[in-house]
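tokens incoming
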């Protein structure tokens, strides 16, 4: 049995490397694959079970049953050992109060079954929320990752973000995209935007890490940060950009409270204010551009087209596109005939963004200063026809790139809502309608909410009650995690949710370092505009990083900040 003993001598190393492999797989999966998120969790489950087994018992088992008799008892013995392992590991978890408190959010969803009616949706929601239960159990019971290994895992995360972002940009360069946000083809562009925002900050640690003495290594991380910022702008990731800017403000505030280097504080404050001022002025310049009106005598408008068909002039509507009035010089019949002769997209249908195509066409023609008739359509190039089919409504979107187009479109959405009072198709205005519906539901169920499974039904009833103008296929849920929790579980549930976040932070405050602080700021800000933990990718992101940073590693050391003479809490060392 010497051979068996030698095999088990390597069991600890086997478990350790499989643990690291599972963590690395999850880091990659978070950026690219919901399927491999699940595979990573199953891999962690395997490590969790192996870690709880005692190798001495296995050795005695193999020594006690020589030859073929081992086969008779092996499976029953394995089942017993798995049961013992689970019980042993769970006892470790139950002794970890912070992990218990965090995982109690899953218990809240279980309690919500007591007064729900739609059990089909409720059980689907529970399956989605499983990471809230299993990941704190795993990380509480598994060995703590040391600082060096933690740094390696975080480098793996940065590398995965870099490769996926390069792939996305390459896809954008090679193929026509109706919506730039679609370049994140693996997971939600919002979740990927949050990850990219984290990617802007996390390489910063490695730039100032004392063990990196060579400047060319630091330069690589600077370039990576630059690339991530470029990606956020190019991909029009409004969520990622806004959260990154707001996170900078929160970090600066924390630095003001805890910092000792007044010169550094002054430099950072001035830099942040300068960046904020530049952003406001940039948005203002786009707004003023949208307000520009090209001079035209509205009393002397041609009444017919070149083909002799009558124009429609709506002089009451003052909407403009690039300074040209939107609702004059329109011949609907000529537009329909001319467009249908050039495109397979029906004039009375929708474009690739599910917008009313004729409205997209009218806006695009207006943005070029063309009349909305057959002559105007025939003036368009094949590239512009494809752009309209893709949902691009302004010719400048073909000339400009990145966030400028998103800001311009948001300004138009706000103006269009002021004109029509219809929030459909306008992402910012829609959210306000979602929030209004959420507050209405909370008003009717303030204390314990509507239950785990009844949120969809409650929202549909509320939208009907509000007589909302939202299109039926756009009557979604809160798009605010705090409101979503309150709708489901009331003010009691919201209090429970907040305690599950902040009490473990207080109890494990010695582990709250740069990495965890950035993550917590990002996730809390994201929850203001998104139902972050209502999807598999979102809940896995939240549960994995929270548990990995707080329960899954050794307490960070205090290391000297190379920019000042004070100490920053928690670096990887």
């Amino acid at each position: 049995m010497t051979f068996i003993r030698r095999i088990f001598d390597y069991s600890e190393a086997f478990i350790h490397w499989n643990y690291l492999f599972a963590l690395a797989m999850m880091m990659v999966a978070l950026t690219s694959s919901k399927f491999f998120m699940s595979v990573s969790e199953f891999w962690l489950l395997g490590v969790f079970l192996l870690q709880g087994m005692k190798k001495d018992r296995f050795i005695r088992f193999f020594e006690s049953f020589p030859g073929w008799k081992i086969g008779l008892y092996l499976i029953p013995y394995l089942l017993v050992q798995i049961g013992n392992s689970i019980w042993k590991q769970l006892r470790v978890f139950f002794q970890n109060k912070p992990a218990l408190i965090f995982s109690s959010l899953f218990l809240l969803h279980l309690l919500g079954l007591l007064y729900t009616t739609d059990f089909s949706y409720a059980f689907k929601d529970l399956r989605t929320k499983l990471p809230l239960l299993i990941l704190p159990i795993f990380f509480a019971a598994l060995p703590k990752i040391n600082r060096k290994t933690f740094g390696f895992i975080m480098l793996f995360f940065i590398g995965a973000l870099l490769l996926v972002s390069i792939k996305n940009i390459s896809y954008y360069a090679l193929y026509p995209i109706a919506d730039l946000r679609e370049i994140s083809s693996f997971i939600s562009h919002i979740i990927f935007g949050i990850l990219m925002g984290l990617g802007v900050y996390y390489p910063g640690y490695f730039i100032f890490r004392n063990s990196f003495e060579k400047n060319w290594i630091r330069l690589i991380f600077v370039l990576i940060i630059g690339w991530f910022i470029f990606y956020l702008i190019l991909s029009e990731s409004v969520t990622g950009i806004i959260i990154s800017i707001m996170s900078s403000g929160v970090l600066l505030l924390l630095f003001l409270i805890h910092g000792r280097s007044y010169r550094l504080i002054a430099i950072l404050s001035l830099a942040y204010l300068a960046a904020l001022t530049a952003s406001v002025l940039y948005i203002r310049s786009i707004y003023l551009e949208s307000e520009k009106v090209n001079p035209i005598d509205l009393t002397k408008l041609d009444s017919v087209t070149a083909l002799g068909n009558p124009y429609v002039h709506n002089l009451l509507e003052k909407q403009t596109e690039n300074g040209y009035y939107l609702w004059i010089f329109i011949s609907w019949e000529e537009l329909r005939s001319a467009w249908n002769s050039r495109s397979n997209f029906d004039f009375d249908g929708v474009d690739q963004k599910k917008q009313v195509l004729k409205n997209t066409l009218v806006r695009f023609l207006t943005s070029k200063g063309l009349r909305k008739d057959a002559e105007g359509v025939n003036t368009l190039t094949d590239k512009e026809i494809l752009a309209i089919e893709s949902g691009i409504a302004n010719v400048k979107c073909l000339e400009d790139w990145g966030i400028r187009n998103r800001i311009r479109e948001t300004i138009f959405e706000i103006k269009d809502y002021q004109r029509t009072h219809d929030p459909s198709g306008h992402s910012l205005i829609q959210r306000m309608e979602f929030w209004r519906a959420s507050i209405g539901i909370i008003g009717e169920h303030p204390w314990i909410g509507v239950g785990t499974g009844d949120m969809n039904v409650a929202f549909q009833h509320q939208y009907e009650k509000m007589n909302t103008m939202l299109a039926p296929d756009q009557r979604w849920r809160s798009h605010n995690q705090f409101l979503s929790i309150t709708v489901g579980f009331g003010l009691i549930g919201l209090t429970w949710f907040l305690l599950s976040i902040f009490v473990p932070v207080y109890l494990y405050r010695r582990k709250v370092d740069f990495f965890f602080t950035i993550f917590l700021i990002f996730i809390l800000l994201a929850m203001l505009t998104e139902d972050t933990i209502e999807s598999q990718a979102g809940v896995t992101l939240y549960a994995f990083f929270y548990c990995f940073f707080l329960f899954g590693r050794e307490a960070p050391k205090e290391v000297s900040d190379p920019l000042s003479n004070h100490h920053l809490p928690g670096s990887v060392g």
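note: The chain has 24 helices and four strands.
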